[in-house]
Every structure is written in structure tokens, then in C-alpha cells.
What does this fold into?
Amino acid sequence: MTFKNLISSINDIHTTLQIKAIQSVSVNLTIRNYLIRHHIVEYEQNGNDRAEYGAQIIQNLADNLKHIKFKI
It folds into this structure.
């Protein structure tokens, strides 16, 4: 193996696994967002077919969850 081949192999490994890591994070963020939405809808609807509006649930959630930083 030449030095050039070593550099190429390391670059290929890095690129391939970087893409896999990004895909994994993307899948997990999608699952997180789905679950959060599910919990909000369940809370809003409280077992009903439709939610009552005007409760400002999203604003109340935002005010109470400021400590959570949604980063990628």
C-alpha cells in the first residue's frame, strides 16, 4: 500500500461513515419530532376527536421548554 492509497482509504472511510452518522441523526430527529407531536396532540385533544383552540398550548410549551436546545 502506498501513502497515497492510505490517504485515499482514510478519506473514503471518513466520508462513508460521516454520511452514515448524518443519516442516523436524521432518522432519530424524525422519530423525536414524531413522538413530540404525538404527545402534544394527545394532550391537546384529551381523548377527543378535535382539540379546543385558544389554549395557547404551543406558546405555553415554548415558555416552559426554553432550556431545551434543538441542535443538529
Q: What stands out?
A: Residues 3-64 form one domain. The radius of gyration is 22 Å. DSSP finds two helices and no strands in the chain. The CA atoms of residues 9 and 56 lie 54 Å apart.
